[in-house]
Amino acid sequence: MSAFGHSHRLAAVTATGLVVLLAACGGGASTPGTAPTTGGAGTAAPVEITLWHGQVDVAQKTLDAMVADFNTSHPKIVVKTDSGGTTTDNMLEKVQAALAADAAPDISYLYGSQLAQLVATGKVADLTAEVKEPSWAWSDFWPAMQDGVVVDGKVRGIPSAIGDFAVIYNKSLLAAKGIAEPTSDWTWSDFRAVALKATDKAAGTFGTGFPVDGSEDTAVRFLYKLWQGGGDLLNADNTSATFNTPAGVTALETYRAMAVDDRSMYLDAQNAGKIEQLFNAGKIAFFVTGPWELETVTAAKIDYGTQVLPGTNGDHTTTAGTDSWVVYDHGPARKAAAATFLKWLTQPAQDARWALATGSLPLRSTTVSDPGFASFYTTYPGNDLFVKNLANAKRAKPRTTALPEVFTAVGKAVSAVLLGHGDAKAALDGAAQQANAALAGQ
User: Fold this and answer.
1) Which residue of 118, 196, 204, 214 has the fewest CB atoms within a 10 Å radius of its CB?
2) Which residues contact 391 (CB under 8 A, 6 or more apart)?
3) Considering the entire predicted model, what is its pTM?
4) Backbone phi, then psi, for 196, in 5-degree steps?
5) What's the confidence (pLDDT) of residue 181?
6) Which fold has domain 166-308+400-440?
7) Is 166-308+400-440 the same fold as 10-164+321-395?
8) Hey, is 205 helix, strand or coil?
9) 230 — alpha (psi -120 to 50), left (phi > 0) or beta?
């Protein structure tokens, strides 16, 4: 699962956080590319479009209710909801098969890192002109979300979910160790110092944790420190790795010092939820994660607080994952109907309704002022920080089909160094060579 695997599913930021296999899939109501049919007396029949979502429980019920309301208020469009016969984890493969069989839906949910792969099929609609219309209020979407749906300069999706990394900390553990709660201006030096102070071998406590399975999760957690130092994963046109610059070495060395020198990091070699389990058992002081973990933390009765990531020279940039609703090109009538529905679905009133029902972070900055959003923070304690933190967020995933190989190279290098195997500069140089080979072959 990706680093934003939980936040990258609409259902996963709900109160239940579950996604399961649902009903069998179906295509659109009319043959792709055809105009809408005409009813009696020359009256145009409603344009029917199909939405594949992969949701369940509260998320599914809420989405179905919202679609029903849309259909009632927009009699010229009929939206049919369907799970797509799969989970959001497997939506890419399902849509690819449907596209090959000319049986794709009009809209589907998609993880952010997968958008470039579908755009390469030539069957994803370009929505650039649509979102420029004033009624969309496109600038209201968080900047990371706007950037997250652009491929080669064109808007190829509409934001559907976002998650960002911040710190959840154990107040009781900090108090027991005489550690003050972190403030919004804390630095990485501060973080290292308090993580070390919270570490107690005899008590089995650690300052923080880090996944070292070499996965995308490992790589993404390296990015925010890299960005804060002025570095980046790839160059501007995604043709060459740039993460092995001094900013990258500094970022990795910061983590290495905590993991190897201080032993203040619990290193999860399998990335199988052990860090979460230890935090919820009161054994980790600072949990770097996203809002999707708040439910389990609350259930564990941890007295917790939340804070932005440690910063570099006042920069608290964090990583954000943006998923999207993708429209498939079945002709102008169905494309227009799909765009109309998605514009409605993501307006502040509907965005607030979805957030309050499911616990998802708001898609738009203006949603937080909507009357329907007023009780969100009391309903979902701790989410206020994650919402505010979206202003610090940057999209984690550049648009390149070689991204999985790039993340694998970075993830393995970071893991090796944190496990005490090798030098930060040498490891990143080796990863850059592997990444460049993958980029050259894309």
Assistant:
1) 204
2) 142, 365
3) 0.82
4) -65, -40
5) 98
6) D-Maltodextrin-Binding Protein; domain 2 (3.40.190)
7) yes
8) strand
9) left
Residues of the chain with pLDDT under 50: 1-42
DSSP secondary structure letter of residue 133: S
Residue 163 · residue 7 · CB < 8 Å: yes
Sign of the dihedral defined by the CA atoms of residues 315, 194, 261, 414, in that order? negative
- Residue 43 confidence (pLDDT): 59
Give the side-chain half-sphere CA count within 13 A for 282: 12
Could you tell me where the DSSP H helices lie in 26-90?
A: 57-73
How do the domains of the chain map onto residue ranges?
A: 10-164+321-395, 166-308+400-440
Give the pLDDT of residue 6.
Answer: 39
CATH architecture of the domain covering 10-164+321-395: 3-Layer(aba) Sandwich (3.40)
Question: What integer pLDDT is reported at residue 400 of this predicted model?
Answer: 78
Q: Which of 29, 188, 8 is nearest to 112 (CA)?
A: 8
Alpha helices for 308-362 (secondary structure H): 332-345, 348-358
Q: What is the CA radius of gyration of the chain?
A: 22
d(CA 3, CA 417): 19
Q: What is the pLDDT of residue 151?
A: 87
pLDDT at 19: 25
The strand pairing partners of 210, in sequence order, are 267
What's residue 20's pLDDT? 24
Q: Where are the beta strands (DSSP E) in 358-421?
A: 393-395
